[in-house]
Amino acid sequence: xxxTTERLGAHVSTQGGVATAPGRGVAIGATAIQLFTxxxxxxxxxxxxPATADQFRKxxxxxGLRNVIAHDSYxxxxxxxxxxxxxxxxxxxxxxxxxxTALGIPxxxxxxxxxxxxxxAGLARNSASYAKALRSVPGEVMVLLExxxxxxxxxxxxxxxxxxxxxxxxxxxxxxxAFCADTCHLYAAGYDLxxxxxGVWKEWDRHLGLEALRVLHLNDSKTPFDSRRDRHExxxxxxxxxxxxxxxxxxxxxxxVIKILETPKGDDEVTxxxxxxxxxxxxxxxxxx
Length: 289
Hints:
By secondary structure, the chain is of the alpha/beta class. It contains 10 helices and 10 strands. It has an 8-stranded parallel β-barrel with strand order 1-2-3-4-5-6-7-10. Strands 8-9 form a two-stranded antiparallel ribbon.
């Protein structure tokens, strides 16, 4: 583990049970991990029994990892105009918050939904759905709205849209919502991290506030700038190249932001992550900005 304040790692598997995730983080040399609390492409929402919760909490405490975050299911669409899918999504996201509470995971990354019909109507449904789920699970678990690549009818590809979504939340739950930025998604959505790195973050600060940036997903992109396609690539081996990641790792503004790889795993789910973490740490050894 590198440095005293580093929060750097990758999304890790929970195959064999959620309590196996911290050990996988240790195996790749991470100081932070992201995980799914359930199978992400199935609706089944398992509850967390006390024994499982205790096993996970102990495994995380013993691991020496500094941070853990969750990511919600791929099936959830809190902006859907279909009342059946919307209700099912609210119930599933509520269960996600309950699992995070049981496991002691302080935040869950969530993709804003697909509006399908009208963007403003989708934003209204999305904010109402988040509010309902958060009110159903009182406590401190945070929801981190993730930037999207702008594919199809997905919400969240523009900073203004994310700001509007958070502002639409009732005041009693709004403080439990912040943001996650994905470098691949930003670039694919038309935010030029290669040609105008400082300009992108200036615009982020103007609309969302840098203090509300809690997680960075560090992913290169297989597709060109403004492609509106979400295709992750290994760090410095895609169309972003090394410079945006070098700058992120050296910029004091991001020092305390959790940084998570979601890059291709390869055959063993260990070698690529170790290599990418070494690469990012090498970038960080330059002079801070």
